[in-house]
Design brief:
This protein has three helices and ten strands. The strands form three sheets. It has a six-stranded mixed sheet. The protein has a two-stranded antiparallel ribbon with strand order 1-2. The protein has a two-stranded antiparallel ribbon with strand order 7-8. Strand 7 and strand 8 form a beta hairpin.
């Protein structure tokens, strides 16, 4: 038997197989220890209010709507959609970090974005979202936090603002831009 082989397999092939096996073990261990996420653990952030990314935003927790979730879009009453019909977004969580009745100053766009990212990230792996709906898996979703800008926060009852103008909302949409056809939030 050749000293550079085992059972007739050349030593370079054995080393390559061993290296590939070690890489696979390290990758799996890292994924398990690192907390694999079904979709991006860092939600996107859009602002709403006068001069915000979204000029109008009147969606509430559990509501589905039609429209592109991007800067320059608007989600007014006409965007409403039944969750069992084709729709582009679903609000899976919403919370006002500071009550509207409290006379406080705007904490700043960076602080609101950080709160939105952290709040919505809680829902990414939660049991609040079904693992699949109408053949679409959670891995195919994108999470976006929608937060108030200074104008909406400072004057929650102004024209164009909603009663939830200090509300931070977590919206899911398909990562490939296609429409959803069923509800993902478990209610």
């Amino acid at each position: 038997m050749n000293q550079g082989s085992v059972a007739g397999v050349p030593r370079p092939v054995l080393l390559a197989v061993a290296a590939a096996g070690l890489a696979l073990v390290l990758l799996l261990a890292g994924a398990l220890m690192g907390g694999w996420r079904p979709f991006s653990p860092q939600p996107d952030v859009l602002t709403f209010g006068a001069d915000g990314d979204l000029e109008q935003f009147v969606l509430f927790d559990g509501q589905c709507a039609r429209g592109e979730l991007a800067a320059g879009s608007s989600f007014g009453p006409s965007a409403d959609a039944q969750c069992g019909e084709p729709h582009d977004v679903e609000v899976v969580a919403a919370r006002a970090p500071i009550d509207q009745s409290r006379p406080v100053s705007y904490p700043g766009e960076a602080a609101m974005a950080a709160f939105g990212r952290a709040f919505c990230a809680l829902y990414i792996d939660s049991d609040v979202l079904a693992p699949t709906a109408s053949g679409v898996d959670r891995e195919d979703l994108r999470m976006t936090a929608v937060v108030p800008n200074k104008a909406a926060f400072d004057d929650p009852r102004s024209a164009g603002s909603t009663s939830g103008a200090r509300q931070v909302s977590c919206l899911i949409s398909r990562d490939d831009g296609q429409q959803l056809t069923d509800r993902f939030s478990v209610i």
